[in-house]
Each structure stands twice: as structure tokens, then as C-alpha cells.
Amino acid sequence: MQSPSRLVWSIALPAMLTNVATALFGLADMWVIGRLGDAAAQGAVELGAKFMMGLLIVFAFLRTATVALTAQAAGEGDHEEQSKILTRSVAVAVAIGAGLLLVRPWAVSAGLALLEAKGEIAQNARIYIDIRYWAGTAWLLSCALSGWLIGQRRVRVILVIEVAANILHVALDLLFVLWAGWGIAGVATATACSELFKLALLIAAIAREPAASRALAAARWRSTWDGQALRKLFSLNRDLFLRTLLLTAAMALLARSGAQQGPVVLAANGILFQIFMLSSLIVDGFESAAQVLCGEAKGRRDRGRFVIVVRTAFAWAFLTGLVIGTIYFFAGSVLAAGFSTNPDVISTTATYIGWTVLLAILGVFVSVFDGIFVGAGWTRAMVLTMAFAMAVYAGALHLAAPLGNHGVWLAFSLLFVVRALGQLYLLPGLARRDFN
């Protein structure tokens, strides 16, 4: 048997590298549009990307729930159930994608109004959204397929696919924006094309799995659509949807607060958020490890294994967060300056870079706790802690308004602190209940 550290890292490292590759989508877009030196264009891409993330990320439960359910089925040694999970997840992704296309005219207008996009920024953001929106279903299907592969510890396959998609994305960004001069439309087109390419690679990878043929057959099995199995899927998905919806609302409030302070602060906050997301996605490798290994422990009802996984994941994640925070402390301003040629944006970003140092460390606890709670199926408790933290965050935004943009980032940091404390409080009782 592998040592706990080797076991955690065997999943966390490929997932970490995959997440870094994923972060390059946003970082590449921000860097390329920053070469134009237009704060309004950079702000429009930031708002357009926030809208698309807000629209789609609430359905990221497709990936998270599929990871947890597949890992639990693997822990029980139920190969047939793994095939059924793949079938159900793909069906849900297709249904959601069709629904999003139906509400497109209303969703775009309502989203831009919510983000308080006005004038030139609103027009440019709509150009970005109108192009990327059509690749939304591909993003949803990719979530379901990648979640199924991760649940079977096929994280390295995901890494290869993500790197290939990002290489294409960066190349298309350079081609469409800097060479062809398409501007904002070029950024959106590059992202949409790379998402379609990633889906094609995932389908190719899934087709090589023995369970793929069973998954196609499972669509015709009555047991696949059994009421109890569907209730379990939708119960888990519902909780994850609510958690992600609250988290998306928090990020939308962050973007909205930046937009209220003008295009320079909006662009600077967009850069800072991308830097924070880079650290978050790195640490999220341990979230993936916790999801898979805690899910397997839950399937086996193995309390000892569960406790070892929790302790090991936290130890390595905290150490990783400290390393990232240290790097940001010494080189964060230099890193941020590379994402714009506008001197006002660069100066404003340097003023607030310290918050990325703090968030790199705070994000560790939320990421690992979420992995534990999802893997063990404690999603209702996770939603409750997120709802309470969101209430604190909204109140802090109001009370910290006199502090300006520092107050915005202070409130955002409190969101992470309150979530982690809530999950820490609930963890022992939940473990005693399910592993007794």
C-alpha cells in the first residue's frame, strides 16, 4: 500500500498541474488583451469572463458530483454503477446546456445589468459573451467527462488533455488578437475553440475506457434511471449547485464593487483575481485528492483511512499555500505588472497585491474542506456554512465601504475565514455519525 503522502500526491500533483493549465485560459486572455493598453477593453474582457464563469460555474457540480459518486462506487467495487454514473452525468449536462441556450437572450441582458456594465464596456463585454456562449454546452459536457475520469484516478489523462487545449488556446489568442487584430472578439473565439477541442479530446479518452460501451448500454437500462439513484444524484447536485451559486454571487459582488470604482480599478481587480485563482487552482489539487480518497474511504466505511487522508491532505496543502504566498509576497507586483501596459492599472494592482498573499493561504483550508465534505457526501453541511459565510461577506462589504478597494478585498477574505471555521466545527460530528 502506498504511503499516505504518496497516495495524496499521486492525485494532487496531476490535478494541480491540470488546474494550472486551466488557469492559463483566463491568464492568457488577460495578458493578450493587456498588450493593447486599453483599460476599457481589458475591463470588458474581465466582465465578460466573469459573466461566463458565473453562468457556467454554478453547474460545476457536474464535475464535482461525478468525482464523488464515481469514487464511492469505486470504493464499493461496483463497476456497473460507474457506467451508470457516466450516463446520468452526460444526460444532465445535455439537458442543462439546452436550457441555457433557450434563456440566452434574457440571461445576457440580465447578467450585464447585474454587473453594472455601462457604455463602451457593456458593448464590448456583450461581444465577448455572444461568442463564448455557444460553447457553453461543450464546457458542461467536459465537466461530466473529466469528473468521471478523475473519480477513477485517471488524473494524468486529464492533465494531458488540459495542456493540449491550453497550447491551442494560447496559440489562437496570439493569432486572433495580436496578428489578425480581432481584439475582444479574438479572445472570445480562441477560448470557445479551445473548449470545443478539449471536449473532443475527452470523448476520445472516454471511448478507450471499457466502461464507455457499458455506459451507452446503460442508457437503456431501467436501473440507470431508478428513482433512488436519481434522488441521490440530484440531492448531491442540488447542494453543490447552491454552494457554487453562492460562491459565484460572491465573485460577482467582487467584480461589481470594482466596476463601481471605474475601469482602472475594475481592470486591476481582474488581474488580482486571476492571480488569486492561480493559487486557488494549484491548491485545489489537494481538493481533488480529498474528494477521491475520502469518497473511497466512505464507500469502504474505513474511518482510519479517512482520518489519515484528511490529516495528510491538510498538511501538504498548507505547506503549498505558504510557498505560494511567499512567492506572491516577493514577486506578486512583478507578476501582476505583466498583465497590462497601462501605467495606471499597473500602479493600482501593486497597491492591492498584498491581498493575494493572504488569500493564497486562506484558500488552502476551504479547498481541502470542500474536498472532504464532497467526497464524504456532506454537501448539505457545506451549503449551510457557505450561506452563513456569504451573509457575513455581504455585511462586511457594506461596513468596509469607507476603506475603498481595500475594504472589498477584506470582505472577500472574511468569506474564506468564516467558511473554514464553520466546516472545522462540523467535521468531527459528521465523521462520528458516518464512520461509527
Topology of this protein?
Elements: H1 4-34, H2 39-57, H3 61-76, H4 79-102, H5 104-114, H6 119-132, H7 136-151, H8 155-179, H9 184-207, H10 210-218, H11 227-259, H12 263-300, H13 303-337, H14 343-352, H15 354-376, H16 379-399, H17 405-434
Helix pairs in contact: 1-2, 1-8, 1-9, 1-12, 2-6, 2-11, 2-12, 3-4, 3-7, 3-11, 3-12, 4-7, 4-10, 6-9, 7-9, 8-9, 11-12, 11-16, 11-17, 12-13, 12-14, 12-15, 13-14, 13-15, 15-17, 16-17
Low-confidence stretches: none
Beta strands, count: 0
Distance, first to last CA = 24 Å
The largest β sheet comes out as: none
Structural class: mainly alpha
Shape: globular
Q: How many whole angstroms does the radius of gyration measure?
A: 21 Å
Membrane topology: Multi-pass membrane protein
Protein name: MATE family multidrug resistance protein
Pfam families: MatE
Keywords: Membrane, Transmembrane, Transmembrane helix, Transport
Quick overview:
The chain has 17 helices and no strands. With 436 residues, it is mainly α.
